[in-house]
Design brief:
The chain has 163 residues and is an alpha+beta fold. The chain contains 5 helices and 5 strands.
């Protein structure tokens, strides 16, 4: 089992983060999401979309956290992105949200995903979050199992339809 370290994202790591985000979208999403959903979520320029996404995160940096998993040689092999929002109508209204969570296939099975998860959950608690949410697409069994191992339960179902 390889040693994995978790580090905070810095702008110098942007190429690594973009590589991981593109792998999540290009490879993992394409292999695991249903074709109908892929059609609805297909982007004109995925790389540009992720560049804009990272710019958006940088603008609201206090409400966002990005963590990178690195192997023994320092290569980025996984990442997790979380955000915080508030819903004043809820009793437990400060919410941590897992936005993106990915570990490269050859780095899976060594605990990198759970290390990323626990570090982000720790940050949510430090920020006063009272609950945490996440989502994945139907049929993404690897993600569903990872969420269940982390203590999540299914709390709803989202529907989509092409018009």
């Amino acid at each position: 089992m390889e040693n994995i370290s978790i580090t905070d994202y810095t702008p110098a790591g942007r190429p690594d983060l973009l590589r991981l985000l593109l792998a999540l979208q290009r490879d993992y999403f394409a292999e695991n999401a249903e074709m109908q959903f892929q059609e609805l979520r297909r982007e004109k320029d995925t790389a540009r979309s992720y560049e804009k996404y990272l710019d958006h995160i940088a603008e609201g940096k206090d409400d966002w956290k990005i963590l990178i998993a690195r192997n023994e040689s320092g290569r980025a092999v996984g990442m997790i992105i979380g955000s915080i929002s508030e819903d004043e109508e809820l009793v437990l209204g400060k919410i941590g949200q897992f936005e993106d969570w990915f570990v490269e296939p050859d780095a899976r099975g060594n605990g990198a995903g759970m290390l990323l998860y626990h570090e982000l959950e720790k940050w949510f608690k430090e920020k006063g979050c009272q609950q945490v949410g996440s989502d994945t697409w139907q049929g993404n069994q690897l993600s569903i199992k990872a969420h269940e191992r982390a203590g999540f339960f299914v709390s709803g179902v989202k529907f989509s339809k092409k018009l």
